[in-house]
Amino acid sequence: MATLQSDNPQLLQRLQQEVHVWLASPEDVSDADKLQEYQSLLSADERQRYRRFHFDRDRHHYLVAHALLRRALSAYVDVAPSNWQFSGNRHGRPEISAPDIVPPLRFNLTHTNGLVACVVNLELDCGIDVERLSIRGNLTGIAEKMFAVNEQQDLKALDGQAFAERFFCYWTLREAYCKALGVGIAHSEKDYCFVEAAAGQWAISFDSQSNDDARHWQLALLKPTTEHVLALAIRTEDTPGKAIIHEFVVP
Ligand SMILES: CC(C)(COP(=O)(O)OP(=O)(O)OC[C@H]1O[C@@H](n2cnc3c(N)ncnc32)[C@H](O)[C@@H]1OP(=O)(O)O)[C@@H](O)C(=O)NCCC(=O)NCCS
To answer: What digits encode the pLDDT tens for the residues 77-123?
Structure first.
């Protein structure tokens, strides 16, 4: 199987056909020297955010996620992990602002209890979301508020674990798509829904009034652990679909 641990010109070249998902388990990193090293990679802004978290666990996840992102980007080009600079769009979506890489490396980051992940690709809009499966909370209420009618109907036929698994498929796909658009889940609409075209193969379907085109999107759903669901949305436009390679690393 192709691995993400290889020389940077080669790895960069592979992004012509592939999309890479870098995964890390925050609980696996506890060594004080390593954590100190991660902190030294952060920008002044990131360090400030890092210090502001109320809960240790959130602070730790943030640190591992941003070390993962910086190390992942540096695997493609000869830039030190601490030298990447980022700026956000008006909805907060970060992109690389320096150094200037042509064609641009694009990424998206996600973190949840027990897992952090970032997707890296060349040029294309991409979004990633990971969630831990849970049957707690008012999932039905969230579905009624956020999901398309078809998705809600599909969920009505399910209960227990099957319900939760399907709920998090829809949720993570929706969030990945919104993050690829750069707007975030707060701007989620109900004029599209996600459809399992064949077992494990997901597509998006838009209402006729929508300006978007389902043929422009590649979606993927992964189960990186028994407890987590991860969704990817990549705006491939008219280019062929990409092979999705994912791998756990210690940043
Ligand atoms: C951004 C958003 C999708 C994050 O969702 P989440 O499930 O809490 O978090 P995830 O772990 O999946 O993703 C967080 C990462 O996504 C990235 N991100 C932030 N805003 C983003 C956006 N608008 N689109 C795509 N990615 C975004 C960041 O890298 C962030 O990581 P960081 O906070 O450590 O830097 C969600 O909070 C949202 O909908 N935000 C809307 C923001 C908005 O509209 N703001 C208006 C100004 S107040």
So the answer is: 999 999 999 999 999 999 999 999 988 999 999 999 999 999 999 99
Name the stretches of the chain with pLDDT < 50.
1
Using CA positions, which residue lies closest to atom 11 of ligand 1? 110
What is the distance between the alpha carbons of residues 9 and 224, in angstroms, rounded to a whole number? 27
Q: Is the Cβ atom of 113 under 6 angstroms away from ligand 1?
A: no
Cβ–Cβ < 8 Å for 82, 40: yes
Q: Shortest CA distance to 130 belongs to which of 221, 201, 57, 229?
A: 229
Report the atom number in ligand 1 closest to the C-alpha of 179.
Answer: 25
Q: How far is the CA of 92 from the centre of ligand 1 (A)?
A: 6
**If you take atom 46 of ligand 1, which residue's CA is the nearest one?**
91
Nearest to 106 by CA among 88, 87, 123: 123
